[in-house]
């Protein structure tokens, strides 16, 4: 596979080489990847994101593959932390999302001030839900936890099920929860994790959860799961201290 870098603010990565296929994630501006032509699908490339190994398909016009671009983004980079940052580049404005990478010197460094991923996640409160999304313009549950963690220098897999698989051996009980832990949920089958969020308890109030469900929001959290207006919406699977080094 060849080297490339995302050249647009947000590039949809799809499950198949078809505009109607499910968007499984997004590539952020400046994100490095590997690519190759998609088999039997002219006008599409298969990509693998370097940051988390996620694979899918996208339009080659969204990826820079020339040597100058590859070299520019192979050097020292700043990772943007503001929900949206405007970059005037090549005669036009680009509205770049948090997590985008820009070569040092193009924009002033952004000090995010976050001491924990849960603080970064709170910056996106009110963002709409979007399956496969990873920005303030729309994000899903695991996109929120992965992005917030990345803004604090912590790596997580892309999907909720993979995040749980990577942390399950260090799982904790509900009674051991503390503010900022990752919490995982299922719908019907406990072995099939479908949702993730952050435990939210910045004060002595009852435990809640900060998560992306309809929008990035805060709901009540009990040992049974997430309660919204008295209705159980997601069933408790487990939790883990996060980051692991703080456990």
Verbal overview:
This protein has about 250 residues and is mainly beta. The chain has 4 helices and 20 strands. A 6-stranded antiparallel β-barrel has the order 15-16-17-18-19-20. A 5-stranded antiparallel sheet has the order 6-5-4-1-7, with no helix packed on it. Strands 2-3 form a two-stranded antiparallel ribbon. The protein is globular. The model has no long low-confidence stretch (mean pLDDT about 95).
Radius of gyration: 19 Å
Largest beta sheet: what is the strand line-up?
15-16-17-18-19-20
Label the structural class: mainly beta
Q: Mean pLDDT score, rounded?
A: 95
What does the largest sheet look like? 6 strands, antiparallel, barrel
Record field, number of beta strands: 20
What percentage of residues falls in helices of 4 or more residues? 10-25%
What is the general shape? globular
The sequence of SSEs as H and E is: EEEEEEEHEEEEHEEHHEEEEEEE
Helix count, DSSP H or I runs of 4 or more residues:
4
Task: Measure the end-to-end span.
Answer: 38 Å
Work out the strand percent: 35-45%
| Contiguous uncertain segments of 5+ residues | none
């Amino acid at each position: 596979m060849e080297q490339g870098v995302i050249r647009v603010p947000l590039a949809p990565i799809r499950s198949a080489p078809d505009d109607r296929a499910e968007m499984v994630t997004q590539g952020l501006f400046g994100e490095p990847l590997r690519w190759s032509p998609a088999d039997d699908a002219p006008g599409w490339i298969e990509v693998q994101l370097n940051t988390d190994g996620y694979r899918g398909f996208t339009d080659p016009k969204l990826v820079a593959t020339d040597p100058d671009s590859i070299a520019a983004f192979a050097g020292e980079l700043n990772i943007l932390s503001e929900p949206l940052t405007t970059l005037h580049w090549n005669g036009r404005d680009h509205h770049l999302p948090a997590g985008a990478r820009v070569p040092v010197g193009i924009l002033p460094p952004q000090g995010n001030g976050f001491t924990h991923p849960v603080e970064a996640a709170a910056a996106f409160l009110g963002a709409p839900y979007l399956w496969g999304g990873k920005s303030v313009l729309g994000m899903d549950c695991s996109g929120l936890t992965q992005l917030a963690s990345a803004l604090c220098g912590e790596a997580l897999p892309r999907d909720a099920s993979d995040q749980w698989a990577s942390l399950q051996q260090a799982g904790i009980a509900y009674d051991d929860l503390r503010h900022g832990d990752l919490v995982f949920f299922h719908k019907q089958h406990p072995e099939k994790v479908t949702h993730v969020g952050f435990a939210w308890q910045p004060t002595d109030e009852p435990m809640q959860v900060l998560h992306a469900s309809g929008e990035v929001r805060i709901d009540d959290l009990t040992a049974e799961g997430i309660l919204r207006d008295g209705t159980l919406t997601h069933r408790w699977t487990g939790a883990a201290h996060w980051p692991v080094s703080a456990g």
